[in-house]
Design a protein that fits this description.
Layout: H1 9-14, E1 17-19, E2 30-35, H2 41-57, E3 60-65, H3 70-82, E4 87-90, H4 95-107, E5 111-115, E6 124-127, H5 130-148, E7 155-161, H6 166-182, E8 187-194, H7 198-211, E9 215-220, H8 223-236, E10 246-250, H9 254-261, E11 266-271, H10 276-291, E12 300-302, E13 306-309, H11 313-318
Parallel strand pairs: 2-3, 2-4, 4-5, 5-6, 6-12, 7-8, 7-9, 9-10, 10-11
Antiparallel strand pairs: 1-3, 11-13
Helix pairs in contact: 2-10, 3-4, 5-6, 7-8
C-alpha cells in the first residue's frame, strides 16, 4: 500500500486546484481542466506535473475531477465557459454528453482539447489507439503464457477491466485478441472485474483469488489494476512471487516500474511518452500550441506505445527521479 497513500494529494486536486499565476510574461492564460478521476496513480502523477508546469509559466488554472460523473463534468465545463478561460481540456466521463457544451465553449473563442476520445467539438484530441494498446498489453502476456503453461496445464487468467468506458472496452478487447491469437488453447479467462484505482482492484483481486486460487496471470487495462493485483499476489505469496505469476498492464507509473525491477508480480507495462514528467510536458506543449493560435493538421494526435519490462524498466524509471 506504500504508494496508494501517496496519492492522498489527489483528494485535494479532486476538489479543484486553483492557482493565480504571477508572472512577468505577457501571455498569462487561463486553463480549465476536468478529468474523470484523480484517484489512481497515473492521473495523480501526471497532473501533479502538469500543475507544476503551468504554475511555472504563470498561468491561471483549475484542475478538477468529475469522479466519473458526466453531470458533474458538464457543470464544470459550463463554469469554465462562464469564467471565460482560454482553454478547456476534458478527459470525458461520457464524450457524447459533452459535445454540445464544448461546442458552446468554442463559439465563445475558447480552445478545446480532449484527452483520450475522438470528439467532434474540439480543436485537438490527444488519443491512443486503444485496441492496439490492448493488443500490446496482451502480447507479452501471451508470451508469458507460452513460456510457463501448456494445453495440458492451462493458465488461469483474470482481467481487470472497465467496460463502462468505450475506450477501455476497446483496450480489453485488444488484450483478449492478442491472447487468443498468440496463446490459444493454453489459458482460460476465469474472472473479469472492473477497477481503475488500486484499492478497488486489490479488493476485487482478493475476491478473485478466494474463488479461483489458481489464478496466476492478470491482464489490466491500467495502473490501478496492476498495482492492486500485485499487492494481492505479494500477500498471497509472502513477497516471494513464483516464476509463473505475472501481471501485464498499461500506464507505466513509477510504482509499476519499481515492482517490475523488484521481481514482483508485475512483469510488463505499456507506457506512452515515458515518465509522468515527459507525459505532462507533451500535454502542456499541446496546450501552449493551442493557446498561441496553432491549428492542427489532424484533429486526432496519436500517442506512442512503449513496452516496459525487466530489460528496459530501469532506463524509464530513472526519468521519474
Amino acid at each position: 500500500m506504500k504508494k496508494i497513500f501517496a496519492l492522498l494529494f489527489a483528494v485535494v486536486l479532486s476538489f479543484g486546484l486553483f492557482a493565480n499565476g504571477q508572472s512577468d510574461k505577457a501571455d498569462t492564460f487561463k486553463v480549465g481542466i476536468t478529468i474523470q478521476s484523480l484517484e489512481n496513480s497515473y492521473w495523480a502523477g501526471v497532473f501533479g506535473e502538469v500543475e507544476s508546469l503551468m504554475k511555472a509559466k504563470g498561468w491561471d488554472y483549475t484542475i478538477l475531477s468529475c469522479k466519473d460523473n458526466s453531470a458533474t463534468q458538464i457543470q464544470q465545463i459550463e463554469n469554465f465557459t462562464t469564467n471565460q478561460v482560454d482553454l478547456i481540456m476534458v478527459h470525458a466521463a461520457d464524450p457524447n454528453a459533452l459535445e454540445d457544451y464544448l461546442a458552446a465553449a468554442r463559439k465563445q473563442g475558447i480552445k478545446v482539447m480532449c484527452w483520450d476520445d475522438k470528439m467532434k467539438n474540439t480543436d485537438v484530441n490527444w488519443v491512443l489507439d486503444n485496441t492496439k494498446l490492448g493488443y500490446t498489453i496482451g502480447t507479452p502476456a501471451a508470451e508469458f503464457v507460452n513460456a510457463n503453461y501448456s494445453a495440458s496445464n492451462k493458465a488461469q487468467i483474470a482481467i481487470i477491466n472497465y467496460p463502462q468506458l468505450p475506450i477501455l472496452l476497446e483496450r480489453e478487447n485488444g488484450i483478449l485478441a492478442a491472447l487468443k491469437e498468440k496463446a490459444a488453447g493454453k489459458y482460460d479467462v476465469v474472472a473479469q472485474q472492473p477497477a481503475v484505482d488500486a484499492a478497488t482492484a486489490l479488493s476485487h483481486m482478493e475476491t478473485i483469488l478466494q474463488g479461483n486460487p489458481n489464478v496466476k496471470v492478470v491482464c489490466s487495462i491500467g495502473a490501478g489494476g496492476d498495482i492492486g493485483a500485485n499487492e494481492a499476489f505479494m500477500t498471497k505469496y509472502n513477497g516471494k512471487i513464483p516464476a509463473d505469476v505475472g501481471i501485464f498492464s498499461a500506464d507505466a507509473t513509477e510504482q509499476q516500474l519499481e515492482a517490475i525491477l523488484a521481481g514482483q508480480a508485475s512483469r510488463a507495462t505499456v507506457g506512452f511518452e515515458g515518465s509522468n514528467k515527459k507525459t505532462a510536458a507533451a500535454c502542456v506543449a499541446i496546450y501552449e500550441r493551442l493557446l498561441n493560435g496553432e491549428k492542427f493538421a489532424d484533429q486526432n494526435v496519436y500517442r506512442p506505445l512503449l513496452v516496459m519490462d525487466k530489460n528496459n524498466a530501469a532506463t524509464y524509471l530513472a526519468d521519474f527521479k
